Amino acid sequence: MPAVKAENLTITYNGKPAVEGVTFELEEGETLLLLGPNGAGKTTLLKTIACFHREYSGELKVFGRPPCNARELIGYVPQSHSLNDRVPLTALEVVAMGGLYRRGFVHFKIPPELIEKAAKALDFVGLLDFGDRLFRELSGGQRQRVLLARALVSNPRLLLLDEPLSALDPSARVEVAGVLERIKRRKGITMVITTHDVNPLLEIGDRVMLLSKRLIAFGKPEEVLKDSTIKSIYGPLARVVPVENKLFCITGDAHLHRHGGGAP
Ligand SMILES: Nc1ncnc2c1ncn2[C@@H]1O[C@H](COP(=O)(O)OP(=O)(O)OP(=O)(O)O)[C@@H](O)[C@H]1O
């Protein structure tokens, strides 16, 4: 059974399509890199798979179920700058919140078994010693790793990540990409990752989707990342450069922040 299956999926906001007629299947354990220009519908597709947005037609299944019946199998990692960092939570508390939400309500006192799980998840992302530090005082890369730990605490089978590398400097990108690789190799979790920069993630991408409201291409990276396909949505200056058996995708695309803020 595929981890995610979409058939002729059209997603709308007040009747206006943001994603149109998309069909694809992602097998369990695979990582999908979701690529496309600003406004292409990447976040919309991710939120619909997560059951945060429900206005769609066509078929969408997560492990054979409608997304809203599969919520306990799904972990969602939002864009890190969408978190309200005025709240003075420690890294450990932010991670533990992943387990509290899963129970359907928020306690003020975190149960000891959840603290233990949260500490394990922090250890997995290499931040065990940072549990007592305030989330808002961490670097961008450390915050992103805390958010990954928060999603891991509830043992998801499918992890949806919205721009996990955006707004990070190059060394933090490598750091976060390394944690994503560890999640894939050690935990075998299926992942869908939206990104404007596919290059640091190509090592873990089993499938690439190019979205520009409609599905432009879906397949193995070497099948999808071709000059002609990239140029068709990013313009004539975009290109794919092979370097030592690796592909580098030059799109000239910069992420323009358009999403509103919100509470953690
Ligand atoms: N809450 C909303 N209400 C109405 N329209 C929306 C809403 N959210 C997104 N849209 C529209 O849906 C389309 C797709 O937006 P979406 O945020 O999914 O694109 P994206 O590919 O994630 O873009 P970016 O790379 O800039 O984050 C856009 O035209 C956007 O204006």
Report a brief summary of the structure.
GO terms for molecular function: ATP binding; ATP hydrolysis activity. The chain has 264 residues and is α/β, with parallel strands linked by helices.
Based on the model shown, name its key terms.
single chain, 264 residues, alpha/beta, Rossmann fold, 7 helices, 29% helix, globular, disordered C terminus
Describe this entry's structure for a reader:
This protein has a 6-stranded mixed sheet, with helices on both faces. Strands 2-1-4 form a 3-stranded antiparallel sheet, with helices on one face. The chain has a two-stranded antiparallel sheet with strand order 10-11. The longest helix has 18 residues, at 170-187. It has a domain at 2-81 and 156-250: P-loop containing nucleotide triphosphate hydrolases (Rossmann fold, 3-Layer(aba) Sandwich), CATH 3.40.50. By secondary structure, it is an alpha/beta fold. The chain is 29% helix and 27% strand. The structure holds adenosine-5'-triphosphate. Adenosine-5'-triphosphate (ATP) is lined by residues 13, 18, 36, 38-44, 256, 258. Keywords: ATP-binding, Nucleotide-binding, Transport. This is ABC transporter. Residues 4-237 form the ABC transporter domain. One of its GO terms (molecular function) is ATP hydrolysis activity. InterPro entries: AAA+_ATPase, ABC_transporter-like_ATP-bd, ABC_transporter-like_CS, Metal_Ion_Import_ABC, P-loop_NTPase.
